[in-house]
Specification:
The protein has about 120 residues and is α+β, with helices and mostly antiparallel strands. It has two domains: about 1-50; about 50-120, Outer membrane lipoprotein wza domain like (Outer membrane lipoprotein wza fold like, Roll), CATH 3.10.560.10. Helix content is about 50%, strand content about 20%.
Length: about 120
Amino acid sequence: MKILSAILVLVLAATGCTTKSKARLKEQNAFLAGQNASLRQQQAAQLSSSGVTVVGAVQHPQVPWVAGLTLAQAVATANYIGADEPKQIIITRHGESAALDAKVLLNGGNVPLEIGDVIELR
């Protein structure tokens, strides 16, 4: 009976150590995941606070923010170098996208931008 009790204590002790180490590993992974998420948010905030981003055939994809910045000004500052005029412009703001016909820009349409907007020229 004493041998059985000793074996049972050893099994429970070994199982407890494994559970503690697994729990510690989960805690460490959760902590690291939280740190990574925080760093990604900080990087996104830094990028978005610096101006607007223009995606497409441009020489300068990061356009510095100035009050009253418009779509036409951003595209001109980015220096569009595509062989053909863009057919479509997609503006993404706070995760929501809106597609515009490029003729709006080419016909002098004044579309105001906000800090962090992403403009895609297609």
